[in-house]
Amino acid sequence: MVVVGGGTAGARLAQRLPVTLLGEEPHAPYNRVLLADVLAGRYAPEVIALPGTREPVRLGVRAVRIDRAARTVECADGSLVGYDRLVLATGSNPVLPPLRGLRGAALPAGVHPFRTLDDCLSLRALVRPGVRAVVIGGGLLGVSAARALAALGADVVLTQQGERLMERQLDAQASALLRSHVEALGVEVHTECRVSGLRQRDGAVTAVELADGYVLDTQVVVLACGVRPRVALAREAGLSVATGIVVDDELRTSDPHIHAIGDCAEHGGRVYGLAGPALEQADVLADVLLAETPAPARTGALTGASAEARAGTRDGALGDAPAPARTRDGAHPRVGNRPAGAGRVGTRDGAPGRAPALRTDPHHEDAAHPVRAQAREPLAPAGRGSAVPTLPQALGFARAGGTPLAPAERMPTAGGAQPTAATPAPAPAEAQPASAGSAPAARYTGTRALTRLTLGGARPLDLAAFGEVTAQPGDDVVQLADATRAAYRKVVVRGDRLVGGVLLGDLAAVGALARAWEGDEALPDAAPLLHLLTHDGGSS
User: Fold this and answer.
1) Are strands 57-59 and 20-23 parallel, antiparallel or unpaired?
2) Which 3 state secondary structure label does DSSP give 247?
3) pLDDT greater at residue 414 or residue 37
4) Which of 21, 169, 275, 443 shows the greatest Cβ crowding within 10 Å of its Cβ?
5) In this structure, are residues 242 and 132 in contact, taking their beta carbons and an 8 Å threshold?
6) What are phi and psi of 172, to 5 degrees?
7) Residues 6+ apart with CB under 8 A from 256
8) What is the pLDDT of residue 121?
9) What is the pLDDT of residue 333?
10) CB atoms within 10 A of CB 294
């Protein structure tokens, strides 16, 4: 079995199964979500390394061609790697905006995307107190990069073409609070601001030109404009490619011997571009492949794992979601609508079609799929349900306990334990063979992702957002704001279902809220909606 790509998805699969992993980067697999903390100097590069894989990783090896007939992968160094089963985990590339002065593969000196550890180390070498830096892109990645540069003492300008920061995750009021906090860190923020070009001298960037004619002098430019799936290898091999590499519920491509997971994969018409779904896809695929492995080979593969190989990723372990079987023609089955329970007084009866449900997912923009930050808390191991009660249970008869659910991708929170090279996070579920007649076959049906971010400063700011934060006609909206504490909480309820929410400054209720949203369970009629925003999510 050969895996192309040593990022989050590929490394996770290689932790669970003995595979040949081809990693293009010269570094051992690492947690990309923590790059902003490496840039800020909070972590050393080795601290964000992911746990070891079952087999040694071939680093610095770039796959250039797939011969499907011969079942071989050709590498840039001329070597050929044969496979019985191939997994493409090629990830994504940063989006380079169409700017004057930004043409071709070579970027001007001082201009960097913010995607890899090498990008991060190059920026650290450039930035010192007083250096003028411009970050292009005001999504979660851009906000994280701006915060890190400001922590290094740079004079930072953050430009966002949209109306507000993190507009895909936050409503207007939450975004305004976020902007105030970012500006308090010393970052100059410009929204509704389109960058049109870069000025250079002797091959180095000197200024950023805005569409309104304004010019920002700068020595460093960070491109945080999102990512796009890397599909060239799959397309040249003749695999079915849309936005990403098209896969079914078994993460199988149009070639039955080739799978795709992570940022490069497109499932059910959606490319996630997030770490949480990548980890869950890797776990589901590991279960799929184990189920197809003959018993003697499977037993041998499982007994050789070392304790180190079984160590969990620093950003938490995911639980697998039970999924419907794949249709005979390989098409993705549609998730059917189901009527909601009795509508709450003052709301519309019924709820919209049920989205794919997910067990607790700890890990985090869209046409360009920007990267979000991700969680580090351990969750339920793969294939096991969570013992923590859901919000409907908590509201009805029990107190919801446990730690807050981590998001689809998020930065570590200030109160959480920090990763260290000597203290790995809890281990993910060890790959186990499926016994006859036990659990249903593993399938991937989609991931619901919660975004969470922590920004430092004199008064650190935590935020979390999930689902639809902008209400539709007929929705119930409950929100609480405390300007003195820079705290804001809001939930959106449609019929008897929680469909979205955003919390800033006070995240005490985020765990119970996230469980209710991810489980898509009916809220009890007897509980007032205001209780959703209490510190225990309405459980008391």
Assistant:
1) parallel
2) strand
3) 37
4) 275
5) no
6) -65, -40
7) none
8) 95
9) 36
10) 7
260-265 average pLDDT score: 98
* Tokens coding 181: 């906090």
Q: Which amino acid is at 166?
A: M
Does residue 167 carry a pLDDT above 70?
yes
How far is 380 from 382, CA to CA, in rounded Å? 7
Per-residue confidence at 305, pLDDT binned at 50, 70, 90? very low
Phi, psi values for residue 177, rounded to 5°: -65, -40
Q: Sort 441 into a burial class: Cβ within 10 Å, 0-12 / 13-18 / 19+.
A: middle
What pLDDT score does 494 carry?
93
pTM value > 0.85: no
Confidence of residue 535 (pLDDT cuts 50, 70, 90): low
What six digits make up the tokens of 321?
């979601």
Alpha-carbon distance 169 to 464, whole Å? Answer: 9
Q: Higher model confidence: residue 301 or residue 415?
A: 301
The pLDDT-based confidence of 265 (bands split at 50, 70, 90) is very high
Q: What is the DSSP string of 289-343?
A: HHHHS-HHHHHHHHHT--TTTTPPPTT--PPPPP-PPPPTT-PPPPPPP---SSP
- In single-letter form, the type of residue at position 149 comes to L
Alpha helix positions (H), 152-294 = 172-184, 232-236, 275-292
**How far apart (Å, rounded) are the C-alpha atoms in residues 86 and 1?**
6
Length of the chain in residues, anyone?
Answer: 540
Phi, psi for residue 455 in degrees, rounded to 5: -110, 135
Q: How far apart are alpha carbons 386 and 175 in whole angstroms?
A: 32
Task: Evaluate if residue 181 carries a pLDDT over 80.
Answer: yes
Query: What's the average model confidence in pLDDT over 479-488?
Result: 85
Contact 198, 208 (CB under 8 A): yes
Query: What is the C-alpha separation between 223 and 219, in angstroms, rounded?
Result: 13
Q: Burial letters for 366-389: b for 16+ Cβ neighbours within 10 Å, e otherwise?
A: eebbbbbbbbbbbbbbbbeebebb
The predicted pLDDT at position 417 comes to 39
Q: Which helix (H) or strand (E) holds 196?
A: strand 195-201
Determine the Cα–Cα distance for residues 342 and 365; give it in Å rounded to an integer: 35
Structure tokens, 145: 């990069």
When pLDDT is averaged across residues 418-438 and rounded to a whole number, the result is: 43
- pLDDT higher than threshold 80 for residue 155: yes
Mean pLDDT taken over the chain: 77
User: Which residues have C-beta within 8 Å of that of residue 55, sequence separation ≥ 6?
Assistant: 14, 18, 19, 20, 21
Answer positive or negative: Cα dihedral of 405, 409, 412, 417: positive
Rounded Cα gap, residues 1 and 84, in angstroms: 6
Q: Would you give the distance in Å from CA 3 to the centre of its chain? A: 20
User: For 42-107, where are the alpha helices, taking DSSP H only?
Assistant: none
| Cα gap 212→399, rounded to integer Å | 55
- Looking at residue 527, its pLDDT comes to 67
